[in-house]
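Changelog note: in this version the structure field was regenerated for every chain. One regenerated record is shown below for reference.
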Amino acid sequence: MTRFAASQPYPAAGTAAVLLLLLAAVAAGAGAQQAPPVRGIPDTSTVADTSRASTIRADTVRGPSRADTARAATLRTDTLRTDTLRTDTLRTDTLRTDTLRIGGSRADSTRADTTGRESPGADAARPDATPPDSTRTDSPPADTARTDTPPADTARSDSTPPDTTRAHPATTPARAPAAVSRPAPRWPVDGPDPLPGAILPDRRIVAYYGNPLSRRMGILGEIHPDSMLARLDAEVAAWEAADPATPVQPALHLVAIVAQADPGRGRKYRLLMTDSLIELVGAWAERRNALVFLDVQVGLSTLAEELPRLAKFLERPNFHLGIDPEFMMKDGTPPGRRIGYATAEDVNHAVRFLGDLVERHGLPPKVLVVHRFTQGMLRNAARIELDPRVQIVIHMDGWGPPQLKRDSYRQFVYREPVQFAGFKVFYRNDTRQGHPVMTPAEILKLFPAPVYIQYQ
């Protein structure tokens, strides 16, 4: 800047200019005292604040943990199977349904990736799969306008049954190495001769599955009862035409104990349907001389605890039992977060329970249907004990394209013979990828030919 000698007077006219120069010099000196920080060396005056800010940000924006992510993928959500808890998956998607908040889903389980493979013994819901058809978003057919209302005591105020319409697709486990050889399964199974009044194998059962409190759980509750029974009549006729040598026995398969996403008062994650609802379905069955199956999804309960509640119905000649291992959560995990399983002892317990009823009340043999769509859902199957008083059906109920369903049937039914074979058809889920529903003629090409057919 310009220097002036101390003895030199300032020109009068330039006083204002000099003042401006002095002010500018002061400002320049102040700026020179704050040199910009050197690149690469942090400004220590803000390090602590920056660290704290990044910590806070991490706490507030932290993404889900790996476990949470896996669980979310599994739950998927068709409500705890909306599509599962299968959707079916389990079912976050699936679980919540029309009115029942069923565990879903089939809790709908995450059965979405119908082309993927699942390793043998894996009983966890597939993370890449889509949930079960429990959260059905597709509108029902035109004749679904419901004019009937279930009895007042069937609508439970404390919780609605889960949408357990399965969300799980049929799965095909990885194949064993070519070097491993297994003895060929023996069909028909060498078991006890049928007692008088036995249904199988001389008749084929064709059943409609679901719950009147939910349109998402299956055809049984999806449309008006009159329309539902008329469609069942048509399926019975189609099976009689496809296999004239085998009489067809119609049936209604009611989910009578439904897995739940919420623990409920007993913290068992299951909901027992009211007697009046079971009687309502029984009345529909009488109109067609049909059987009634009571399906059980025990959640965190057990068969030993739940079956006695149904004894008064199972004492009737036309009432039979179904158990769903998908919702048997032995490790305390709520239904819908993973696929549960049953052991041979669970099945043997149900067989003994039904056999005692047959003996005590002089009934014809009972039919026990056990759902299965993964290897791990039924453990130690070879230890299941056959009893002439109870006829056991291992029922392949996965959904997906026809070839995937055939593979699953071969893997989980044919390869592990128990007694009789069953097969499920999903009116909606099986057609999700544009494939047609399998016809009776196509299903009859399976070996062994299933003697229990279920439509959902």
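Spot check on this record: The chain is about 30% helix and 15% strand. The two ends are 93 Å apart (CA to CA).
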